[in-house]
Design goal:
alpha+beta; single chain
C-alpha cells in the first residue's frame, strides 16, 4: 500500500465530477485516514489523491495530472464531520488494480502509439500517450523489428505520460534490456515534466541520459558514435 503521511497536503480529484480540491491529512492509522478540506465533501464519494511536493510553487493541479500520476491513490469517503473534516478508507492493492484496468479500458486516448523515424544515424522512437505495464512491453518488440546495424536510439517521451508505477518499472526494464543488447540510448523529455522527474529517480538517467532539447540529445549520440570505443 502507498505510504501516507500526517500533516501532508494532498491534491484531490473527485471521481464523478473530476473537480480538483486540496485536503490535509490530519492522522492516519492503517487503511483509514482523517482529512480536512474547505471543499464540500460528501459521504461515499470516491476521491483520487496525490501528495503535493514540498517544493510546490502554487501552480494548479488538474484532474489529468492527478489521475495520470504514478503516485495516485484511490480512496473512499467513509464519513464527514464539521469544520471540513472527513474520513477516508484507502483502496486495497486489489481494488486499485481493478480500478486501473477499468480506467485504462475507458480512456481510449490513453493508448500508447509508437512511431519509429529513421533520422540519419539515429532511430527516433516517438511515444505518444500513456505508458502502462502492457504498453511498455510493446516498445521493445517494436524496436526489435529495426534491422541490425546502427545502434543509436533517441527515446522521445515529450508526448508521453507514465500511467502508474508498474508502467514506469516496465519501461525501465525495457530500456535496460535494449542497453544490454548494445543500443546506445538518449532520452528526450519536456523540461520540468513529470516524466523527467520520475526518470531522474531511476538508474536510467545515467545509462540513457535525459535531454530537454532534441539537438543536444542527437549531438550526444553523434559524439558517442565517434568516441564510444576509445
Amino acid at each position: 500500500m502507498t505510504n501516507l503521511f500526517e500533516k501532508q497536503l494532498y491534491a484531490c480529484c473527485e471521481k464523478e465530477s473530476k473537480e480538483v480540491f486540496y485536503a490535509s491529512m490530519v492522522s492516519v492509522k492503517g487503511s483509514q485516514a482523517e482529512m480536512r478540506t474547505s471543499w464540500k465533501i460528501g459521504k461515499s464519494m470516491t476521491v483520487f489523491m496525490i501528495p503535493v511536493p514540498e517544493q510546490w510553487d502554487g501552480s494548479e493541479f488538474t484532474a489529468s495530472m492527478i489521475l495520470d500520476s504514478c503516485d495516485v491513490i484511490e480512496t473512499f469517503v467513509n464519513r464527514t464531520g464539521g469544520h471540513g473534516s472527513f474520513q477516508i478508507r484507502i483502496a486495497s492493492e486489489e481494488e486499485w488494480d481493478a480500478a486501473h484496468y477499468a480506467l485504462a479500458a475507458r480512456r481510449r486516448e490513453g493508448e500508447l502509439t509508437i512511431e519509429i523515424v529513421e533520422a540519419g544515424m539515429v532511430f527516433d522512437v516517438r511515444l505518444h500517450g500513456q505508458v502502462g505495464m502492457e504498453s511498455a512491453a510493446r516498445i521493445k518488440s517494436s524496436i526489435d523489428k529495426i534491422p541490425t546495424g546502427r545502434r543509436f536510439l533517441l527515446m522521445d517521451l515529450t508526448d508521453t505520460r507514465f500511467f502508474n508505477q508498474s508502467g514506469l518499472r516496465m519501461y525501465v526494464m525495457t530500456v535496460k534490456e535494449l542497453l544490454n543488447q548494445g543500443w546506445v540510448i538518449r532520452t528526450l523529455v519536456k523540461k520540468n515534466s513529470r516524466a523527467e522527474e520520475l526518470l531522474k529517480e531511476t538508474s536510467l538517467c545515467k545509462m540513457a541520459p535525459l535531454f530537454s532539447k532534441r539537438e543536444n540529445a542527437v549531438a550526444s549520440l553523434m559524439f558517442e558514435s565517434l568516441h564510444g570505443n576509445e
